[in-house]
Amino acid sequence: MPPPTVLIIGCGIAGPVLAILLKRKGYHPIVFEKVQALGDAGASLMLMPNGMKVLNLITPTPTILETHTPPTILWHGTASGHTLGKSPIPRTYKERYSQPAMGIKRTALNLHLKQTLLDNNIPLYEGYNLHDIQEHPSTNTVTAYFTNGESLSGSFLIGCDGIKSSTRNILLAKTGVKEGPPTFTGLMQIAGLSKRSESLRERGVSGMCNWYGAGAHVIAYPVSSTGDVSWAVTLSGRETEETWRAVSGGEELERRKGLLREKLAGFEDGVREMVEGAQRIISYGLFDRAEMRAEQWFSGRCVLVGDAAHPTSPHLGQGANQAFEDCYHLSRLLPDLTAEGADWPAVEAGLEGIFREFAELRQPRTAALVKEARHIGEQRVVLGGPELCRERDARIVAAWSDQEAVAEGLDRLYREPF
């Protein structure tokens, strides 16, 4: 009997990882990506130990760390550079959690995962934008239909197509739920890549740094072993399109830098130098979407993973990491078809139950983290005058003065998923 075909929608972060994990268990995954050719995308990701554990199953950590520097310091300070809190705890991540943290350019990770997918002889169809899904109970199959007129059937389908998931919209619509437009949070981010400013080297070449100002927050961390730094500025502002299109020159790049000069006027020189040094800038609005109940994550032949199931804002740095946790748990719950006595028809009969178990396991954790990320964003960007900024800064000092409590809070995130 040929292995069951799994249709995986999306070749960003979760799709390739899940495809490789499932192929090892005897499934036949096929990955579909809506863009014509994966290329330049976004700024960067901070992969935390919980996400690195799963990525290590696909790509051994030492291979990636040949060109990357894990952060060794967490630093929080005022816009002018006064320290509010500092911790060397990232140096202990490998010992505590078996994996370090690591900043990486999103494009580099996407292309690495795509190549790893191809190296594992897993079919990838680019330029396939999902249009519809039809489940066929009589034949125990599901068919994906694409806007290019193509279609393909398989045993089940996994939606890994991110925050603007077509899979999510289709599954909700089939249950009579129309997903409304996302809600603007009042915050936007402008992000870029630069070389670390010499004036910031006192924080440590591998420091993950946060600056808190009036109406603005800046985060920066290393994304290579050669001094490349990813930074993001969170600001309050008018509603901005939810897009990650980059600007790499001309009047628009200068306009965005001009906005940052105005908003970061009170920040220390190194921050402003870092921003000025960017040759490419991305800006995007931050939006909230309605929380999905566990039973909305799946149907008889389909299941959602990552931001398709639990879209989140970036303030907690757990979007990609939770997607990796999803990949691990879904692949763990799907039986190994290479094992002696494995019986796909028996597995197939309980497929919806497996999806339900996965969703009920993951939804409470991801929902709590989405809410926490939203709260962190609201706390970082303070409007209303110096007194509110002082109150925020005092909370940061109190939070980081108890290193044991800091470690306990990180344990809650990073000890998962195994």
Question: Any overview of this molecule?
Answer:
This protein has 418 residues and is of the alpha/beta class. The chain has a domain at 5-58 and 101-181 and 290-380: FAD/NAD(P)-binding domain, CATH 3.50.50.60. 37% of the residues lie in helices and 24% in strands. The protein contains 13 helices and 18 strands. The strands form four sheets. It has an eight-stranded mixed sheet with strand order 5-4-13-14-15-12-17-16, with helices on both faces. A hairpin with a 4-residue loop joins strand 8 and strand 9 (141-146). Helix 1 (14-24) runs parallel beside helix 5 (106-119) and helix 2 (49-58) crosses helix 9 (319-333). The radius of gyration is 22 Å and the shape is globular. The model has no long low-confidence stretch (mean pLDDT 92). Belongs to the paxM FAD-dependent monooxygenase family. Residues 5-335 form the FAD-binding domain. It comes from Aspergillus sclerotiicarbonarius (strain CBS 121057 / IBT 28362).
